[in-house]
Amino acid sequence: NSAKGIALRKILAKELRPTSQLSEDTFAFLISARFFSIPWLTGFAVLVFKAAIFTLMLLNLIDWNNKSNFMGVPASVSTPVLIAQMLALIIAVASQDDIRTSLTYYYEGYDHRWMGQAFDGASKLKWFLGSSGQFLQGVLGLYTTFYLIVTSDEVVSLLLDFTAVEFVVLLDNAAFEVAKQGFFGSSNQMQTELVVETEYPIARDASPIIQILTLVLTFCAVLIGWIYFFSQQVRGAYTSQTLYVQFDDNVKAELGAYSGFYSLHIKPNLLNIQRVRYHADNGDGYFGYCVPSKIWTFSIDDGDDPCEDYIVHSDSTQSFDITDLDSASWYVIAMPDTGRSYEMTNFYLNSGCTKDYHCGNGITGYCESNRCICSRGNFGARCDYAVRSTCPIVQVDEETPIFSASRDYATEYDILKDDTGHVVQTYHHAVYFKPSGAGLDLVLFTGVRWVVTNTALGMPELESHDREGLLKYLQSEPYHATKLQFLEYYSNEVEFDTPDDTDEPTNIAEWYRVTGTSLADSSKVGSVTTRLLCAFCGERFIDLELCQNGNSCGENGFCDCANGAEGVNCQITPLGNGRCDE
């Protein structure tokens, strides 16, 4: 083969035709070696190995379940990272010779008269397959490099990932050099010598202008892709569109009322264009980033500066994505004058949802813009409550005391539904009411706790203190519990997305007697053992087996207690009556 290459060079010297050489990589084996020979199989193995590595990288990085951001692009990145991304893109394109070499092959064309003399195993089919394989491999490698660059949010991690991918990109060149040293056997070593020493005539000479043009076009394509992702970051496309927040109300009692959904707001700012805010759906409160202090803050007043008058703040962070702080420490400022703050122990912050599975397991709702959209007949922040299985009547357990503070409250409450049968909600939980005296006795959720109140004192702004007046009031605008002007009882904290977080107040571990006239100045003075039970067992509730002590549900939908059992659920065991003691 070496002698044959020398003879060919002598012929070319006489004819003065432009010549070229195959690139010094294992893709040259796919063009020059015979099918299924050792060199050809070596080149094919390197091709498959590189493709497998790139594919595994991409499969590991892509999250198909995250519909809004399956690539995992960060919400935004700092200026140093942007500069590092741009430099990495330039280096990636400059070092990506697979695309450039394969396009050069296409431009030069295949001359079967001379290529066949240069390489015994050459054919137009192998030339086409080898060139195409090298081009596709280059595209896959460049895409993987680009993917890692745009999804990096730290300079160090970007450089480490970039270096690792560039090693894989150059694997075919490294394998060729190893074969050239004889480590892959004599057949591969001889093939490398043939590739290095052999020149062959070409129909068209690939001038430096073609090489430069290819490089420029490749870089422009990559740059356009990078600009697209950057513009999406500026628009907040990769930032959670919705947050669900539940505050700890132990330090500031009114904070619980600010729990709920917060929606993304992009506030244009040429000096700080990549920062976003989240505003409460009910219009009160927002989260923003304070650049000088490097903290996320929560403010009640809708001001322009998140560094002023905030009452809650995070640990120091440079993260552009507030959901990165879901497990970080958050603090509430107890004394604004001194700045003294306390860590909140039961603070919850996260995206409303990222997958349909988060919304009633994908059965009773679906996720859109990080918010669960519930199907008809279902409700709740996660669509995990069903109207048909929400208790329509709750009643005080006869074995526990009634709610009795300034007066005796009702012992039985009906669920509040509108005229179409939908459950009326406050903070995504059902509302229960009972006419009593001058107003309605209510049991409703206020973001963290259930409360017991009366509309005459707690909601004096109602047009009428009856069912219709309450409906109109709660449906006119999102209810905010800071409007509540009177309460005498509230429950223990009900943490979001836990077994205690149910659609009705029948799972409350403890109730507290409260002093004060509103959530802001309320404080508990002692616990009460009052317990609420579901009083209705009919229709959809029979399967819940509410009726105890061997009793069953009657035709009227209430437990039919026999054998001396008593109570709304026949829960009072018949002892001492001579019938059920044994």
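The record above closes out task 2.4. Task 2.5 opens with a second protein, given below.
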Amino acid sequence: QVTALFINQTNITGTILTPEQLDLSEADAVAARAREENDFSIERDLYDGYLASLRAKYNPQGASRGMKAQSAGAPAKRKETSSCDPLTFLLKEFNLLDFNVHHASNSWAGRAAGGVPAVGASDPHLAINVPSVWYWSHLEWTVGGDQTFDAAGVGLPGLPGVHIGKTTNTSWGITMSMTDLSDLFIITPDPTNPNNYLVNGSSIPYSYRTEVISVKGGDTITLTIPETIYGPVVTEALNLPQPIQFAIYADFLRNDTSSLDGLLCLNYPTTTTAMDVRDCLSNIRSPGFSIPIEDVHGNIAYSMTGLHPHRRAGHTGMYPTMGNGSFDYLGEIPFVELPTLTILASQSELSGGYVSAANQKTYPDGYKYSLGYDFCYPYRGSRLHEVLSENPTQLSNVTFHMKLQRDTHSNIAAQWMQILNDISYPEVAQFHQTLASNAAAVALYSRLQNWDLNMRIGNVEGTFFWRWWRELLRPPMDAINAVNVGVDSDDQSTYWSSGQEQFPIYEITRPTPTMTAQCKSYIAGAAGCGDMAAKIFIGIANGFDEASSRWGIDY
């Protein structure tokens, strides 16, 4: 039920690489969609059956909770749930706006035609911390007797070398690939032996690891961690009742003997081309990075890192699956088969070239593996593509790239204003009919229509749009509560995760009967989703104070 509320993030446009770049056909896309749907069907059936047994055993009184009507513009109330609710782990509190905005990242590389240099940019978007996540370093030494070699950029404390930066020969930027490198497996305890679990009908003993944690000014903590062939049992970490056994499988945490070599390799004088950098990256088993690369020769490349499991049919990684031998991995996806791109200097000599990454899905439909389903919606990625593709002669201009780094255009607002200007959608027509009853709302909507869609510091229209859009993201969480899945927080600043940005758009452009029912329930007296969106708009407009609503200052 919950999954049905999520917008499908698998078949989306705006991917990092195009079908042409990966040599994928429409036939490949059709086959990939059919394969994924088959996997989803098997996985859902298995997991639904498992959850049904959990409900019967641990939450027999759990009935579907109804949604409570809210006043216009009011935040949806959250229901506190018991830590023993076996479904709590499904939707552990996750702040969409914090993760998809503050913890996002952008990186790109470009080269204009005409034999000019390639230029790269990288912005990890990490929050400011004390101590800092990064430290600056500049390494310089002599090679070949009289040649000076430089490596400069930032690195993580405790690990040597430059991790994002440049050398005399190459440079690279890093974003997270958002691909799925680990899985939860459901462990079946042996009912005849509490020290064992069952796999393929055989009883296997747990192994145990002791972790001793020294606490400054406090008592030492000793943890005994049961281990299975699928990894450590993380039931306690997920705050679940002990009879429910989940193990996390992450092969890179077990056998990683090469990632440090991959990082150091980036700094070697012998790494002279973008293709050499990609070879270095093949050794990084974790985490999953999305990396644009460029070199002094004018070559551009893109590479992904990470040890990606090759899952069996019926296992996508979206859900925990059975750790009974049925869904053991087929192996690892070879690095050479991960999505990659090379634009040689000779190829970009006449027309230029670029590649950009912003946490969106790397590959389009048709790629033969499924690498995950938690990609960011490509608002930022699409914006990068728009600007880079429209300025081919500027791709080697450092000032141009600095300006792009400071770009404030909102593709989210652009998408919404385009939809709200199309009254062929019945819900949009209803939105405008309701909005017309309130002068303050009409005036603010007129300002949004004349707004240039840039979220500049001090901008008021951007703040109003943000507040309205933020409220539109709340009803899905209310819908989750209605299907008996709760979260452990009453924090009103938290939101849904992957795909939630698109949920309100679906409500306005093609609402399902379920969505319409949710809209009517969310705002008392709402006639449908368009009416709900207008009532929220009016509720914010009535109390909107421009003096305290400056973007980047008050918000």
